[in-house]
Amino acid sequence: xxxxxxxxxxxxxxxxxxxKLTDIHSWLSEDLDAxxxxxxxxxxxxxxxxxxxxxxxxxxxxxxxxxxxxRELHGALRSAVLxxxxxxxxxxxGERRSPYLAxxxxxxxxxxxxxxxxxxxxxxIIAAHxxxxxxxxxxxxxQFHGYCEVCGQSLWSRGGETLTCKKCRRxxxxxxxxxxxxxxxxxxxxxANELVDVVRDRLNLNIKPKTVHDMAYRRRDRxxxxxxxxxxxxxYRAGDVFHRLRTQLSRNASQA
Length: 256
Hints:
Helix content: 40-55%
Number of domains: 2
Shape: globular
Largest sheet: 3 strands, antiparallel
Oligomer: single chain
């Protein structure tokens, strides 16, 4: 029986995979390591492995589920890098830890997308990401807050009034950083599918792609189409969508 041909990754699938790879590089792998040795925020400060009590005895704590998730994640990433290097003639980066491999793959996403087994690679990484996500002690997904103005490092947070850059240690006000991200986002173009995630993240609203498309088909105050992707998907400016959704929210509130 002939095996189905792997048709590669379209731009939307590439974006989805890059999102998972960014998670792994930015925070998920670090959280998984912390869970692996149970060195998390859920343990008393006096018993964290990083500051273990002097009078403690016995072996270092170890989480079997996190260990298996870490092995699965690293194996998926290493196998993916090896496939891309082999098929596309790229230089093998050497034996590296998961965060580095994830970033390498994100930077070579176009090469990965045209590999013969691209869809299998993506599915394997996404499955490993899911396993790792459920294995960490703090499964609440951090929120992306753009990039540090000083060093360009990505900023992530699970809440709080301030953010601390992991690279240069600069502390910034969360509200200020959020306003910066919103201003940048409003000028960017997205597909309707991408806007579902953007709107949920920035406005805390759950919409469907049809919600965006319907705005573009209205008789009045029609949402303008600002362009198209390489595969023909319509592009909309985030600011246009935000404005209409905020107007609708305000109208609903006044009628309540």
